Amino acid sequence: MRHAHRGIAGAVVAIALVGIGILVSAADVKVKPTQVLAVPGTPVEEALTANFGGAVASAELFTVPTGKVFVLEYVSAFLELDSGSTVNHVAFGSDTPHQQHAIVAHFHGSSAEQFHYSAAQSLRAYFPAGATVKVSSQVNGSGDFLTASISGYLIDE
Fold it and tell me: Taking the complete model, does pTM exceed 0.85, yes or no?
């Protein structure tokens, strides 16, 4: 009987501790205002729409100015393809220096003979002065258009 009594006492203490939390009022809670993080350079956001020439779409999004480095942080794409077509790849990168960052495109619906795919990803890639950031996509079948966007910032070399 003595051990059962300890169990009841422990339960009473647990309930009392939970009760303390309930007694905290909304006036006691200190909320900090949302802070906007400073970007360490000049923000860049670019977007475009490119038409497919058969199964391939490719377009230049941004050329890095002299004396700067572009830090790419986020990419996204939307593809509208002919019904039955699928995406082989979507990639962002540059020819000089050669770099390519592939992102996964997901099917998310269809409408009137069109298949819709989208892709988005956070990443960190660096492009030197003179580099041209491009988007490319290849599909099985044929596509109508590719809409792409990038965001990041420029820093001094």
Answer: no
Q: Is the pLDDT of residue 3 over 80?
A: no
Per the CB < 8 A criterion, the answer to whether 142 and 82 are in contact is yes
For residue 17, the SS3 value is helix
**CA neighbor of 146 nearest in space, from 112, 121, 119, 122:** 119
Q: How far apart are CA 116 and CA 97, in angstroms?
A: 32
d(CA 106, CA 129): 33
Task: Report the alpha-carbon distance of residue 91 to residue 147 in Å, rounded.
Answer: 12
- Could you report the per-residue pLDDT of 124-154, keeping only the tens digit for each? 999 999 999 999 999 998 888 999 999 999 9
Q: What is the DSSP string of 34-90?
A: PPPPPPSSEEEEEEEEEE-BTTEEEEEEEEPPTTEEEEEEEEEEEEEEETT-EEEEE
For the chain, list the domains and their CATH numbers: 42-156 (2.60.120)
H or E stretch covering 6: helix 2-22
